[in-house]
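Section handout, structural biology tutorial.
Before the tutorial, make sure you can parse a SMILES string by hand: atoms, branches in parentheses, ring closures as digits. In the record below the ligand is zinc ion, and the chain has 479 residues. In the tutorial you will relate the predicted structure tokens back to the input. Do not try to memorize them.
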Amino acid sequence: MTALLIRGATVLTLDAADRVIEDGHVLVRDGVIAAVGDGDPVVEPGMRVIEGRGLLLAPGLVNAHTHSQSSTLSGFGDRLSHPAFMWLTQAHTARRTPDETRLAVLLTAWAALSTGTTALIDHFPGQRFSSADIGAALSAWHETGMRAVLGLRFFDGDFADIFPAPGVLSPTMMAALQEVELLQPQPLGELRELAADAIVRWHGRDGRIGVFPAPSNPDRCSDAALLLCAELAERYDTGIHTHLLETRKQATLAQARYGMTTVAHLQELGVLSDRWSCAHCVWLSEADIGLMVEAGAVAALCPESNARLGVGTAAIPAMRDAGMRLALGTDGSGANDNQSMHEAMRAAATLHRAGLKERGDWVSARQTLAMATIGGAAALRQQRVGAIAPGWAADLVLYQLDHPAWTPLNDPQCQMVFSESGSAVETVIVAGEVLLDGGRPTRFDPTALAQEVRAMAVSLRRRNADLFAVATAIADSVQ
Ligand SMILES: [Zn+2]
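Predicted structure of the complex:
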């Protein structure tokens, strides 16, 4: 039995009573919080003690939507629309070796841990995948020690939402596109086998790793593929993760294809359920919101990515008022440039405000914190994650109060959302294990990782020169 005691900290519990405990302590046994209180508890022999004086202790943040393969893309390209961004991303992320997949996961983990995130959903990868790719990603997440769900990206249809209008691409360009086989789907039977095998091997490992079937986007999948995802999720009791109605074009295409919205189609197909977590949800209709609420599906909102790619602003207050289960994500670093859930929270709490006259309708700091903690845990289908209370997972973050964002300490909830960017994060603990100590990851060497990633970026640029040529030409020809 391993025991860890954090004492003398200011504890922001986010528990049912919303307690903030001065000079508080948290006792952890076997990865679970055993006691929370104030004053000096008894230190038992063999117990690890972390002195929390001058530190704020808060629940770890949960990122409900990111892409590890995009972790190498911070700051690439400016004024990119969603289709242009998508094409360029393909060139950056294709043809990676399993070792490069591992490096991209570690880079994501470094970015996440160092800004106070303890759990996430990695929607993986950009293109077709093999069992070696999946194994590399899952082994790497296991290596990081984080709580991570790998969403295996399903698509067996086309990416009509990012293709230029007919006739825009020259025949030569069309031929070049066919040649490089970007975004060529793999057979459904193969997807089923790969996903089932990964779920059986990895889902639930150490209580920290999950594997979900994860449509790239329902509109890029046949009904058979969507039914397969639902069947796998039922059989193995997993969630289903997807992008959903990120762009206006996706909403228009769904009407043309189904004669109804994507959400209505999922409902009619009989697959919509509380297993679904859906990234973006920018173009939901009021009826869509109602259907998702009724089904218990989770919206994983990504306000910064939506702003960066100019796709719109999700109606977070309307979703909240309808009783939708809400989570927050950063999206991949290609669409958001960093993995800070603090910045995602600030965007979620503020971007809608100018459009809402009644300030009582604005999303509050406390509601935003719920989205970034227990809301995200619901997307990962994790129970008792996201608050500091006995019986809950010991996923904890210590922030330096001796920092401009926290000086003076006015209101810890508001400062978590509006002041902190992630830069005061000192220590991160997942399931009782310290994964970030003094700002440095404990399970891997970030200096060596940075060196390897730099070399990998150069190598990919050379290896994928043909893809960059095609993707750049297409990106230049789409709005
Ligand atoms: Zn995404």
